Amino acid sequence: MFKISIFDKFIFKQVLKATLVCLLLFIIVWIAPETLVKIIKKIFTHAWTIMEGLKYLVYELPKVLGKAIPVGILLGTLFTFDKLSKDSELSILRGIGLSFSRIMAPVLVFSLFLSVLCFYVSDKMIPYASKATGEGAHFNKHFVYLQKDKNQIPTRGIIISNFMTDGIKNLIVINFANEKYDDAMTFKSIVFAPYALLKDDYWLLPEAKEYKINKNGVYTDIDDIKNYKILEGKLAKDVYTMILNSTKRDRFFTTKELKEYKDILKKQDFTDEYNFILTKYYQRYLHPLTCILFAAIGCLLGFSPPRSQRLIGFTIAVGMIFAYYITLPFFDLMAQKSVMPPFLAAAFPIAAFIVSIFIIKKVKDL
User: Fold this and answer.
1) How far apart, in Å, are the Cα atoms of 56 and each of 26, 116, 123, 128?
2) Residue 123, burial from CB neighbour count under 10 angstroms (0-12, 13-18, 19+)
3) Phi/psi of residue 237, nearest 5 degrees
4) Which end is more exposed in the chain, N or C (fewer Cβ atoms within 10 Å of the end residue's Cβ)?
5) Backbone phi, then psi, for 135, in 5-degree steps?
6) For 201, which DSSP code?
7) Partners of 240 in beta bridges
8) How crowded is the C-beta side of 98, counted as CA atoms within 13 Å?
9) What is the pLDDT of residue 124?
């Protein structure tokens, strides 16, 4: 049975202290250049009060914390085990019969708690903080939706040239005819509307103007329609949800919202966007695992002979951190363009770190 010993408590306290220091330094370095300057400018121009500036700073912390936790545990364990190695304390622990895996045990348990915290930060705290700061609350959006029948033949095209959070404005609805040329669809009518109202199970265009078009592509009549309905049933809410979410970054979503959004995209056959959101959904669960893997890597890199160079381990650690965060957009793009399956794109960095653990362990001869 696993029994907590005095050695576990000692190593746990050392890693905890080092990790908290690294977390604090990372947060300060990340926030200081841009966020603090923005807050100071807002306060001095009287756009914000001091309390509003402090509140904004608090809401910015979770966004940094999601990245800082894996970095903190990696550098914290690396610094701790490097110090224990230089002071020959690890050699003493191994000399009394403790294996390196047993010495790592309290660190891995600590990293498990951090991985749960990391998931909670990404799932709850960051979406809440993003909404609280009003990030992306006001925007203009151009959106195009192609409605199809059961045979995947286009029946209607909806072009929204101006969508804002307070309403849908400037709509163009293209109704396709059954006849078509070899290389193009023909139009039955084109409807213009200054705005649309979202009802329970349809969109209502109160002031629509319909231009009817004959087979030769020439409009024959113009009708004013008081209440023109489009997107009836559940489709009305699905399309509205897609418009709302199409401007959001993945950090705005809780895990549940990500799942609901990806299901809608799959149903509506938005392949590129679906692959991208599915990758982010997998990353939501896989990213916290980096806390455990980084903890193991930090322990392995920190273990070294007393007279060896410290710079090597820290250089490798910083390189891993940089490679991980810099390549995430690349894998997102690969999944979005269907070059890689979404799960493989999300899991590839995790698999690379697992392989790195075995390589470092073999090199260290542990």
Assistant:
1) 18, 25, 20, 12
2) buried
3) -75, -35
4) N
5) -65, 125
6) S
7) none
8) 20
9) 92
| CA nearest neighbour of 204 among 224, 228, 225 | 228
| Tokens representing residue 180 in the block | 């078509």
Task: Write out the DSSP string of 136-165.
Answer: T-S--EEEEEEEE-TTS-EEEEEEEEEEET
| CA–CA gap between residue 247 and residue 227 (Å, rounded) | 29
Cα–Cα distances in angstroms (integers) from residue 8 to residues 12, 17, 70, 362, in the given order? 6, 14, 21, 25
C-beta atoms surrounding 57 within 10 Å: 14
- The pLDDT score that the predictor gives to residue 351 is 94
Q: Residue range 25-41: average pLDDT? A: 80
Amino acid at 249: R
CA distances from 185 to 82, 146, 172, 192 (A): 69, 13, 17, 19
Exposure string for 205-219, b = 16+ CB within 10 A, e = fewer: beebebebbeeeeee
List Cβ neighbours of 91 (8 Å cut-off, separation of 6 or more).
Answer: 85, 306
**How many Cβ atoms sit within 10 Å of the Cβ of residue 285?**
14
> Which amino acid is it at 198?
L
Angle ∠(293,331,272) on CA atoms, nearest 5: 135
Residue 305 pLDDT: 66
Count Cα neighbours of 316 within 13 Å in the Cβ-side half-sphere: 18
β-pairing, 228-230 with 203-205? antiparallel
Q: Of all helices (H) and strands (E), which one includes residue 188?
A: strand 185-198
- The answer on pLDDT for 286 being more than 60 is yes
pTM to 2 decimals? 0.83
208, β-bridge pairs: 225
Contact present, 60 and 133 (Cβ < 8 Å)? yes
- Token readout for 6 is 């005095």
CA distance 121 to 58: 13
Match 């045990």 to its residue by tokens: 105
User: How far is CA 36 from each of CA 20, 40, 54, rounded to the nearest angstrom?
Assistant: 21, 6, 10
Helix (H, G, I), strand (E, B) or coil at 183: coil
